[in-house]
Amino acid sequence: MVSDKVTAYIEKHEHWKEELKKLRTILKKTTLEETIKWGAPVYVAHGKNVLAIAGFKNHCCIWFFQGVFLKDPNKKLINAQKGKTKALRQWRFESFDEIDESIVLAYAIEAIANAKAGKEIKPEKSKKIELPVELKEAFKKNAALKQNFDVLTPYKQKEYKEHIGSAKQEKTRRNRLEKCIPIILEGKGLNDKYKNC
């Protein structure tokens, strides 16, 4: 089944359009069903997210949600966030010619088989992050700031809490807060500008 939303996603990524079309054509040869999740094309089988494709500034990629279980005989997969990501593996392409249909298809078929077999590392629940004192103080002075923060998704709230609260020095925490206030007031997440570039 072809998703119009996936078509729209590919069409808007002018720089990587041909590469994304090629990946999609390869994936259509499998039993995967396509959909959009988290703003990107995601391919599902056996009730599991198996893989996704996306275009970024310097590359397009395919990532495997449980890529850690793939044999990777061609050494294509990377862990984009070592120490943070346990299961997800990414395969980056910087040109159309780098996309080898037979290899991509083999990896996709293996990923589908792994999903069917129930191979999965579940993400660990992260501990609750407290609201930094500086942000609490800013909320007392600016009701609109608190309102806009409260309507953000829990994930986006967490990004702000971590970014501001992780600085060791008070001066750095205050500087980060000052830079974040306009973004929060726009109703945007801290890293929204990097998504779908």
Write the layout of secondary structure elements.
Elements: H1 4-12, H2 17-27, E1 33-37, E2 40-45, E3 48-55, E4 60-64, E5 89-93, H3 101-116, H4 133-141, H5 143-151, H6 154-165, H7 170-185
Helix pairs in contact: 2-3, 4-5, 6-7
InterPro entries: YdeI_bac, YdhG-like
Protein name: YdhG-like domain-containing protein
Domain YdhG-like: 16-112
Q: On the 0-100 scale, what is the average pLDDT?
A: 91
- Strand content range: 5-15%
Secondary structure tally, helices: 7
Tell me the radius of gyration: 20 Å
Structural class: alpha+beta
Give a written overview of the molecule.
With 197 residues, the chain is α+β, with helices and mostly antiparallel strands. The chain has 2 domains: 4-116, Aspartate Aminotransferase, domain 1; 133-194, no CATH class. Helix content is 42%, strand content 15%. The chain has 7 helices and 5 strands, in the order H-H-E-E-E-E-E-H-H-H-H-H. It has helices spanning 4-12, 17-27, 101-116, 133-141, 143-151, 154-165, 170-185, and strands at 33-37, 40-45, 48-55, 60-64, 89-93. Helix 2 packs across helix 3.
